[in-house]
Amino acid sequence: MRTQTTLSFLLLALHLLLSTVSEADLLPDPFQSSDRGLWKRPEFETDYKGGWEMVSENSGVSAMHLVIFNNNKAIMFDATVFGPSQIKLPAEVGCRNDPTMKGTNKEDCWAHAVEFDIDTAEIRPLKVLTDTWCSSGAVSANGTLVQTGGWNDGGKGVRYLTPCPTCDWLEYTTALSAQRWYATQQILPDGSFIVIGGRRQFSYEYVPKPGQSNPTSFRLPFLRQTTDEVENNLYPFVHLSTDGNLFVFANNRSILLDPRTNSVVKEFPVLPGGSRNYPASGMSVLLPIKLNRGRRRSASKLIPAQVLICGGASSISAKFAANGTYLPAVSNCGRLTITDPNSNWIMEQMPFPRVMGDMLNLPTGDILMLNGASRGTSGWNFAREPALTPVLYNPRKPRKQRFTVLAPTTIPRMYHSTAAVLPDGKILVAGSNTNTAYNFTGVRYPTELRVEKFWPPYLDHFLDQHRPQIVPGLFTGLVSEVRYGQDFQVQFGLPELGLVDGGDVMVTMYAPPFTTHGYSMNQRLLVLRTMDFSLIAPMMYQITVVAPPTGVVAPPGYYLVYVVHRGVPSKGIWVRIQQQ
Fold this sequence. Notes:
- By secondary structure, this protein is mainly β.
- It contains 4 helices and 45 strands.
- The strands form 11 sheets. Strands 21, 35, 37, 40, 43, 44 and 45 form a 7-stranded mixed beta sheet that branches. The chain has a 6-stranded antiparallel beta sheet with strand order 7-6-3-2-38-39, with no helix packed on it. Strands 1-33-32-31 form a 4-stranded antiparallel beta sheet, with no helix packed on it.
- The radius of gyration is 24 Å and the shape is globular.
- Residues about 1-35 have low confidence and may be disordered.
- Keywords: Signal.
- This is Galactose oxidase.
- InterPro entries: Gal_Oxase/kelch_b-propeller, Gal_Oxidase_central_sf, Glyoxal_oxidase_N, GO-like_E_set, Ig-like_fold, Ig_E-set.
- It holds the Pfam family Glyoxal_oxid_N.
């Protein structure tokens, strides 16, 4: 009853407002072009450099791998080979058999994976059967984690974990044709998956259907060409380009691989400055994919795509670290338009060097860099000088103004750390274990089970008056599923007094990644095309946007949708792009 009364009042107020103000005065043209970035007017400014919040003292397992599900649960896991964790499997679940254990008792009753509630920090132990050490993964079109490879008995395995209150791992131990340890997994436009590389695996293969096994792999000589004495081409960076090709980066070189023909169609210039892949462990993201405002893009017109790669280490850094010498990490970045056949790397300088860091697309289109170290490389105690200070990169600003140094944490997040963007715009930060087992005393960097959340600058409370609030259910609300190319409406409130220009608002769509070893696989942010913008009640607005055109631009699955008002994002709402 109260909701109906409030709605009637809002509609009455709107009627009175419209009776005195013309439509032309009320709704300025939302599609005016601007050369100042994604918004018509400048972003709101803040001096806030972010903040840190401790949300859990004990996650049970150290988060070597991390993924966010559409039920707002985080899945954290490391490896079965590290011995006891800090949480046991429930009695009703039972212990796992571990053939690697010494003695006659082969039972391992410790959990090596947990489900972590991102709102309450409650944890539920999960029973993974085979070794997930340094594995890969991606979330399928129906929201299931499809997880590949690992060490020893897990190297050829494919595991499935579906989001539900009682779900646990389902495993097929002989699905892959090769041991995929330190490999990369990428979702394809049809929702299937490719797995590329791994230690001494100069090949790739496609994830088979559950219960089936691959008889063989596809050779990729590029991976053999990019290896060196310390194998600085592991966990290759793989990004699905908007032309359907796969950008594959290993060590300091990159190609376009066409998965439709299994052929290399392009090799890019060498990225100078050092090695970028494990163990040199730089960072890489696909920069926001911008879909045009106010008109429908021709299906034949290619949407530009850019890749950013930052940090890393010298090609010999791991060799030196093994002998107790920790070389400075790489402090530069390279930016490349992968849809331009004549593109070359544009180099930029970070405020300070970083190796083993994490790089995330934020809802605003900015890039966050955090975690890692300033010297050394990935490996067991192979790094020094924790990089405690996050850095924000704004790709829309002039080159020398793009980096902003943010507020530091007090917890070193070294080897085997992870981070993830949450629906409310905060960043979940977990993990760090440079030891060969769980070790909390007598070591330089103890195993880390504490979980933090980082508040980026856009969460400054002084910006709350400008923060959109998506209102699902009101005035038909936000749909939970969309089809490719479909128009859909997002309605939101804005506490700010005064009229909002449609050019000041954008809708972004974020694909949460699978993160491990400093690389967030399958991460993707799209800026949706705006078709209409209107005031529907006092301080209530509706924006009509167009879903991505094809699976090449946005593979099917669950995305977080945000409304961003001059650099201030709403909380995200889960939306699923239906599989064709």
